[in-house]
Amino acid sequence: MGQVNLLKLVIVVDEDIDPEDPRQVEWSLAARFRGHEDLIVLPGMKADRCDPLHEDLVVTKIAMIATTRPGDGAPDSRSEFARPPADVLERVKLQLDDD
After folding, report:
1. What does residue 63 show for φ and ψ, rounded to 5 degrees?
2. How far is 8 from 53, CA to CA, in rounded Å?
3. Residue 71: pLDDT band with limits 50, 70, 90
4. What is the pLDDT of residue 96?
5. Contact 1, 10 (CB under 8 A)
6. Strand pairing partners for 72?
7. Of residues 2 and 63, more confidently modeled
8. Which of 5, 15, 39, 43 could make an SS bond with 48 (beta carbons 3.0 to 4.6 A apart)?
9. May I ask the CATH class of domain 9-98?
10. CA-CA distance, 13 to 29, in Å (whole number)?
């Protein structure tokens, strides 16, 4: 972030996340990011001259670390995948088949 003036936000994800898929990146942030541990704020960084928010060519940059944690996705873990109840999922599947 110190080498490229245009970058003001970097989000780090694991290799199981496609960084070009915003839904996957958003999921990774929702399931794996812990603000009090994984947010890096870098004030006083050199800005690009075209940045409309710079003050004397200085900005604050942010890094968010959204990487795997122990138990990631496992039942009863803090990042368990949300799934609808089986009966609801079955009714939706039946409704889709009827259409």
Report:
1. -120, 140
2. 11
3. low
4. 85
5. yes
6. none
7. 63
8. 5
9. alpha beta
10. 8
